[in-house]
Design a protein that fits this description.
alpha/beta, 2 domains, 26% strand
């Protein structure tokens, strides 16, 4: 999918299809007016012309939809994490800074995976697993940062060391950046994988306040 295809599809759905729909509605109104106020003997010719005109418009709209329908499947996944603007009839409207800030911290891995514009790279960061205490699991990053986490933690028999697993997404074609698409700044968290040999490991931190939530400490990842 190229930038040219995307821009043409945007113009078709956001501008030309709206024009076609408006003309069809206007034609139907004229047809009703013609049928109501024109003498019976004089209705046929204008009615056939108007019906034919409406049919041509619907044909054009149908052909355009067949040509560009792949765009719709992609566009439905777009949000301010992925793009800084939204197409409208008159051009583009930029998302607000508050929306962009909120979405920049959002883990929308599923939407990014659905976008054909992005290439996904799996990231595996080694961790030290200290153990669990109740619902919390305690970890140390390679840089020495301490954190705790309680969700999407799995144990694996074939794993030798704990891993923080996520995905980075990068545009396959940088030219999409010219129309507002972004390379998400952060890694999208998937799960924490632990060796099955460490499943029974317990840990009681001396100071619980030393361990902040992963979302706070691992700030370069979106949880």
């Amino acid at each position: 999918m190229t930038v040219e295809f995307w821009q043409n599809a945007e113009r078709f759905y956001e501008h030309w299809l709206m024009n076609i729909f408006s003309l069809i509605v206007l034609t139907l109104i004229v047809m009703i007016f013609t049928f109501t106020y024109t003498a019976k003997g004089k209705r046929k010719k204008p009615f056939i012309f108007l019906f034919g005109f409406a049919a041509v418009l619907m044909l054009i709209g149908g052909i355009g939809h067949v040509q560009y329908h792949d765009y719709l499947e992609q566009a439905m996944h777009i949000n301010p994490l992925i793009r800084d603007r939204v197409p409208t009839y008159f051009g583009y409207n930029a998302y607000g800074s508050s929306e962009e800030m909120y979405y920049s911290e959002l883990n929308d891995r599923d939407a990014l995976r659905e976008m054909l514009l992005y290439e996904e790279t799996v990231i595996q960061e080694p961790l030290t697993y200290l153990g669990t205490n109740g619902y919390s699991h305690y970890f140390v990053r390679e840089n020495g940062d301490l954190f705790r986490h309680s969700q999407r933690i799995s144990f694996h028999e074939d794993l030798e060391e704990p891993q923080l697993v996520g995905s980075r997404f990068v545009l396959k074609d940088d030219s999409f950046g010219e129309i507002g698409f972004k390379n998400p700044e952060h890694t999208m968290f998937d799960e924490i994988r632990l060796p099955i040999s460490e499943a029974d490991k317990q840990y009681n931190p001396e100071f619980e306040t030393d361990f902040y939530r992963a979302e706070t400490i691992v700030s370069d990842w979106n949880f």
